[in-house]
Amino acid sequence: MFYYRDLENNSETFSPALQEALKLSDNSRFPELINIFLEKDFTLLEKNLAEISESGEFFMELKTRDYAKVYECSGEVIIKQNRIKGIILVFSDITSRNIAALRLHEESLKFQEQGRAFKAIADNCPYPVWKRDENQQIVYFNTAYGRIVAVNDSSVPENPELHNKGKELAKTALEASACTRERYHIIVDSQRKLYELIEIPAENGTVGYGIDITEQERILSELREQVATQSDLLENSTSAIAIFGPDTKVKFFNNSFLSLWKLDERWMGGYPSFAEILEVLREKRRLPEQVDFRAFKEEHLKLFTNLLESHEEFFYLPDGKTIRALFIPHGTGGLILSCEDITDRLALERSFNTLMVVKKTTLDNLYEGVAVFGEDGRIKLSNPMYANFWKLNEEWLAAEPHISEILEKTRELYNYGDNWEAFKERIISHTVSRLPTIQKLERKDGMVLNWASVPLPDGASLMTYDDITDSSLVEKSLRERNEALEQGDALKSRFLANVSYELRSPLTTIKGFTEMLLNEKYFRETTARQKEYLNAINSASNDLMMLISSILDIASIEAGYVKLSPEEFDLYEMLVSLVEFITPKIVENGLNIIFACPPDIGHLNGDKARIKQAIISIISNSIKFSKRGGNISLTAWPEGGEKIILKIEDDGVGMHRNTIMDLRNPLKNLKDQAAYRESSASLSLSIAKSLIELHGGNFTLISEQNFGNKVICTFKRKLKIVN
Fold first, then answer.
1. Residue 674 has pLDDT above 50, yes or no
2. pLDDT of 695-723, one tens digit each?
């Protein structure tokens, strides 16, 4: 048997005998011999081939990897014309001479190597490992074992034990000829640990190892607690839940499951199978109607063996209900069945879908532009009016462009000043900041938009754009007109105050001299005609003084200068003192006063002086417009527990309808002297009305010409002062 390598043609040849012996194919090459011979022998062969040009020949032995064959190999060079033409290797089978000794030697070395490897593995194993003899004495332990028992040398003969019952466990294993295990608590590094000790029968004794299951036991304890908690949770869950074991029998069910399927609790307590439950539900017509119920049942029983992921079904029951059934494979085998009555939810979904269609139609037909931007700044929804306002293509908006892209596309419409980037950043920050914002946008094309931003619960922002171009122009005109009116009103108030002051000073002088002339202490020789004239002057002065005071009061109220000083006072006492004060004037004018008020009417909270002034103004107006012999009545009474009603009524000449309507502008009729009398009444009643309304009360005037006046004032006991 030979192998020849032709160095000139760079070819190689295996003899048929060698091919057959080594089981080589016709296409085999020299490097494939590494798979046949021991690696170290093949390496030496390659080395000899590399050095044969110097030595000219070599001899060696090659062993197969399974030690079944040993070959003697001799190598020699073929020289032609002083040149090495090739190399020939001759193989001879010498297995019969020394294979037995070699195999024994190799097996011994291999066994020793395996022993060292096993010892290295055992010493590096984190678990304690040991070997006992037939007397249960420890003859070997690894490093982890020695660390636990605090012994460093595994050959120490003290036979240290992890637990005092270790020998008994080994003896039990030998007697039973089976693996035996027990759990014991062991002190490791000053800590109490739970170990599972295992003894396995072996040749001449036992082999043992220990596993620290402290953490495992803790986890199992927590798991048991979690299972108990989950059981409580499932028991109180509103979802109908049942758990079936690998044998298809029910292992757990909650009250919701019983209630949903209307099953008897005692019958379920007998742990029926899934098939039996289906049969009962069929009898109760609690399952969808089936043409082939047997196929339906078999299909669902297959879920116990074929289901790898959760499986969802909808059961449409004969009574119109829809049940969502979710089958989930259990980790320990079997199934978890979760059922939910979704009849109402489906109805709500249908209503919701209808509502969404209505909302979309509504949105599309709004006159306001509407856009919704998501958290990422991209537009998620818009209506046609938004696209129309900003001159954008609806198809382009449907692609959800970013707000920055929209701004760039509409740049020519904005009044952004000199810095476009800063303006754009400000708009973007308003869009994504999720803060309510209202702004007015005046565009270059003249359109004015009212822009509002509202944050939505899902993180998006709603933008609305309202075209207020026309209303903005109207607003501008109204604002200018209002400013002019305010200036005129202020001018009027200043004019009234100044004129009233200038009139009061000379009027006081006239009144003082008139009273002095009427006083006989100073002037006794006045004639009757002179006294008549002086009395007329004095009366006119009093009327004019009252008119000027009224004008000043109205001007002060309109200007907001009147400040109330609220206090709590007895209303009955105040009205009695008021009647005593006003009675002489009523008698002087030939009139009668009628007063009616319960003494226990209670207290009122307000500015006592101003309320008194308002009532006197109303009565004074009644005196002025009543004929001699007429009646003036003042009546007060409580209404409920919170209100008090005051009514002042006379049977005088009454007032014109237009005057009643102009109480808020009493000076209007002063332009016409003919209307002076009506305006005087309007002044008194206007002052009264303003003072009562400042107290948060209600003033009602009922009057008709020739049929007298009726004023009704409604107060709350705890008045809301309006300043």
1. no
2. 888 999 888 777 888 999 999 887 655 55
Strand arrangement, sheet containing 2-6: 11-14, 2-6, 83-93, 70-80, 57-63
For residue range 1-30, list pLDDT tens digits in order: 888 888 888 888 888 888 888 888 888 888
Pairing mode of beta strands 311-316, 191-202: unpaired
- Chain centre to alpha carbon of residue 121: 56
480-508 in b/e form (b: 16+ CB < 10 A) is eeeeeeeeeeeeebeebbeebeebbeebe
Angle, in degrees to the nearest 10, between helices 528-559 and 676-694:
40
Name the DSSP class of 307: -
pLDDT at 189: 82
Q: How distant, in Å, are the alpha carbons of 33, 54, 418, 536, 634 from that of 522?
A: 161, 171, 86, 19, 41
> Concatenated DSSP letters for 122-171?
HHH-SS-EEEE-TTS-EEEE-HHHHHHHT---TT-TT---SSTTHHHHHH
pLDDT(672) > 60: no
CA 452 to CA 433: how far, in whole Å?
13
Residue 78 has pLDDT above 60, yes or no: yes
In this model, does residue 676 exceed pLDDT 50? no
First to last CA, the chain: 129
CB 622 within 8 A of CB 652: yes
Question: Residue 98 corresponds to which tokens in the numbers above?
Answer: 């020394």
- Among 504, 502, 586, 608, smallest CA distance to 546 is for 504
Q: Which SS3 state, helix, strand or coil, does residue 605 take?
A: strand
* 640 Cβ contact partners less than 8 Å away, ≥ 6 residues apart: none
pLDDT in tens, 92-143: 888 876 656 666 666 666 766 776 777 777 778 888 988 888 888 888 888 8
Both structure tokens of 369 = 């532009």
CB atoms within 10 A of CB 689: 25
Q: Is 302 left (phi over 0), alpha (psi -120 to 50) or beta?
A: alpha
Count the Cβ atoms, other than its own, within 10 Å of residue 142.
22
Nearest to 61 by CA among 99, 109, 35: 99
How far apart CA 204 and CA 432 sit, in angstroms, is: 80
Kind plus residue range of the DSSP H or E element containing 716: strand 709-716
386-399 mean pLDDT: 88
- Are 308 and 319 in contact by the 8 Å Cβ rule? The answer is no
Using alpha carbons, list the distances in angstroms from residue 229 to 219, 223, 236.
15, 10, 11
Residue 671: is its pLDDT beyond 80? no
Q: Measure the CA–CA gap between 359 and 675, rounded to whole angstroms.
A: 61
Query: Pick from 145, 223, 221: which is nearest to 186 by CA?
Result: 145
Residue 666's pLDDT band (cuts 50, 70, 90):
low
> What is the crossing angle of helices 293-301 and 274-283, to 10°?
150
Going from the C-alpha of 301 to that of each of 236, 264, 267, 283, 451, the distances in angstroms are 28, 22, 20, 18, 62
The residue with tokens 């139609």 is 361
Question: Over the chain, what is the mean pLDDT?
Answer: 82
User: Average pLDDT in the 572-590 region?
Assistant: 91
pLDDT tens column, 195-232:
999 999 988 899 999 988 888 888 888 877 776 666 66
Q: How far is CA 182 from CA 162, 197, 206, 365, 454, in A?
A: 12, 6, 15, 80, 69
Confidence (pLDDT) at 575: 93
Looking at residue 101, its pLDDT comes to 60
To the nearest 10 degrees (0 to 180), the angle between helices 571-588 and 608-624 is 30
Q: Residue 523 and residue 513: Cα distance in Å, rounded?
A: 11
In order, the DSSP letters of 527-546 are -HHHHHHHHHHHHHHHHHHH
